Amino acid sequence: MTKNKLREAAMKLFGEKGYDGTALSEIAKEVGVKTPAIYAFYENKEDLFMAVFREAMQLYNTFIQELLKDQKSLGAKESLNRVLTRQYEFYQQNPEASLIVLRYIIFPPVFLKETIEEAFLQSDELLTQIIEQLIMQGIEEGVIREQPVQLLVDAFLNLMDGLSMQYFYYTSREVYERKLNHAFDMYWNGAGS
Fold it and tell me: Which residues contact 72 (CB under 8 A, 6 or more apart)?
């Protein structure tokens, strides 16, 4: 129970204040324990941070993997669009995990950069495989023009990255959803047959 509460508090505080701006004593205080209690579960601040970061990445991976369940019944176009809306839903439903992932992928603490990149690359590989499957499905369905799959995958991943940044820029749900829909329409106009 305490371990889960420590992770939840750490995710919130690391996301809000950054790695350097968050003291273990703050995390302990948030949970209502003394700082030494953290060491019963985590070796040090870095260990706690990486546990929280990996948990946030795993939450995102699980959320995205659920897309494969509907892949064949929806078709490629709807499935690709669903990837974007699913990412948006993840941000809304998991604001602390979203913030920690985005913050530390873009601005990792220097001494954790390699470890964070390794965790991110595992997630990126999984997402790339899913997008690639959906694009190949679209080519087989005849709704995506024959062209290099890697080109379409890279463009889609860049679209996702841009929308990730924009989610944190715009507080208006209406504005963000308009941008998401327009971005997907433009992508599909370039990829579709």
Answer: 137
Q: Which residues does 21 contact at the CB level (< 8 Å), separation at least 6?
A: none
| C-alpha span between 152 and 43 (Å, rounded) | 43
Look up the pTM and report it: 0.85
Q: What is the pLDDT of residues 74-112, one digit of tens each?
A: 889 999 999 999 899 999 999 999 988 888 888 888 888
Instruction: Please give the structure tokens belonging to residue 90.
Output: 């993840």
Query: Which DSSP symbol is given to 35?
Result: G
Characterise 5 by phi-psi region: left (phi > 0), alpha (psi -120 to 50), beta (else).
alpha
Per-residue HEC secondary structure of 18-41 comes to: CCCCCCHHHHHHHHCCCHHHHHHC
Name the amino acid, one letter, at 126: L
pLDDT of residue 169 exceeding 90, the answer is no
CA angle 144, 150, 154 (to 5 degrees): 95
Angstrom distance (rounded) from CA 102 to CA 118: 15
- CA–chain centroid gap for 126, Å, is 12
- Residue 33 burial by Cβ neighbours in a 10 Å radius (0-12, 13-18, 19+): middle
- Tokens matching residue 70: 């509907």
DSSP β-bridge partners for residue 144:
192
